[in-house]
Structures are given as structure tokens and as C-alpha cells.
Amino acid sequence: MTEAAAIARSSGPVTQARLVVDFQRLGVTPGMTLLVHASLSRIGWVCGGAPAVISALLQAVGPEGTIVMPAQSSELSDPSGWCDPPVPESWWETIRATMPPYDPRLTPTRGVGQIAEIFRTWPGVQRSLHPQVSFSAFGPQAADILARQPMEDPFGAQSPLAALSDRDAQVLMIGTGWETCTALHLAERLAQPDGPTFQDGTCITVEGERRWVRLCLPVTDIERFQPFGATLDGNALLRHGHVGSAPSRLFPLAPAIRMATERWTGSEAA
Description:
Distance between the termini: 42 Å
Mean pLDDT: 94
Strand order of the largest sheet: 3-4-2-1-5-9-8
Strand content: 15-25%
Structural class: alpha+beta
Number of helices: 11
Radius of gyration: 19 Å
Number of domains: 1
Keywords: Acyltransferase, Antibiotic resistance, Transferase
Largest sheet: 7 strands, mixed
Enzyme class: transferase
Low-confidence stretches: none
Catalytic activity: a 2-deoxystreptamine antibiotic + acetyl-CoA = an N(3)-acetyl-2-deoxystreptamine antibiotic + CoA + H(+)
GO biological process, one term: response to antibiotic
GO molecular function: aminoglycoside 3-N-acetyltransferase activity
């Protein structure tokens, strides 16, 4: 969405103060741990842009709260699997040989929106070490949440998602659809711990040297997120509201993961 379109859909500027009130009305409270997915354009014309949204989130949870966002960098993968857009096969070996290694300080996010990208660079924000599907976090629980993320099981029982579940985190979706709900990847892994995998590659630094490494990663299926989300939308666990003009949701991560795991385990068994 263009800035002109955001202005057209807004009844007035969305200020940081209004955002704080909207978060509070939705159920965000001081001390809360939040996994946030957000679309800046869906909020409307925000006075101050993405930094204003981040400042409002930090204000709403206060100094005892923790904010977490996906910080995915899908371009650090094997070019043979790229499809949006693909690159010529004749380029693949050059890309593998020259791709810069993952650097949690410098590697930009891809496909997670302006708010997550600005949050990644926010003073004091920490980032996990997975080269493709990292998370960034700010707050007293950030280091513990990001401490573990296995290279070949980045969404499983030892991941930041599992740490968030253990800490009674809430998921805040601001103008985003269920296909963006990264937390549900944890339910996939719990439902199918020995599920299908695929071969990939990435570039990392090992003992000070750049290395291209091969990975065996779990297959994910976001096509089932929407049907499950439609069920959750009608559950009392989930609160609906608006942040600016953006339809938004707030729900506890752990119960939602239990529900999705039970549903998908049952469907696989059937």
C-alpha cells in the first residue's frame, strides 16, 4: 500500500498516544511478553511511522515487558529453491560461493514488514543466531527467549517459540492474516516431530571463516494455518479489536499451540 492510500483510508493521523490506547483496549498490559506480527500500512497513516508503533508497544508493556518479532532472512538459503522470484540456474554456484554470511547485526529481514525491520535495529534489541528464521527481542526476557534455536529444527521444542510458550507469551497480530502466524510452526513440529524434511543451504561464519553449509529442515505448511485460525477467531481465548485502522488479534500462545497440535496430530493420524 502506498502512503497516499494509507492517508486515504485514515480518518486522521494515528499517533503514538492513540496506539498505546488501542493496545490497552485490545488487552496488552504492563509486564506482558508479546510475539508481534504487524502491517504498518494496515494501521493507516502513522505519525512517526514504524518507530512510533515500536515506541507505543514498548510503552504499553512497560520496562518489565518483552517484545519479540520474527526477523527472517530467507535470502540466506539455497538459490535452487528460490521462487519469488527465481534466479537462473547458471547463477546458483556463484551465489553459493559469494553469499555474505549471516550477521545478526547487519543481515536485513525479508518479508516481515517495516516494523519488524526497524525493530531489528532498535537500540538494545537482541537477535537469535539462525541464519534464515531468526527472532529479535527487547526486554528482560529477551536473552532467555533467544538463547536456543537449533539450525535444523528452528521452530521446535528447543526454539524461541517454545521459550515463548513456556513464558505465557501472548501473540499480537496487527493487520496480518493467519498465514503470518509464526507461532503455529511450533504446533506443526509438536504434531509431527518426525515429519517430512527438505535439503537447503545457507552461509554462516564458523571459527571466523565464511562457510556454505547444508541443512536438513522441516517442511512447513502454512495452508493449514487459515482454517485453524478461523476456528480460533471464534474462541473465547482470542480478543479482537483495532490498532488504528488495522483489524487486530491478541491471544495466549500456549493454549493456541495445544489446540493446533491436537488438531493436526489427529488429522495426521486419520
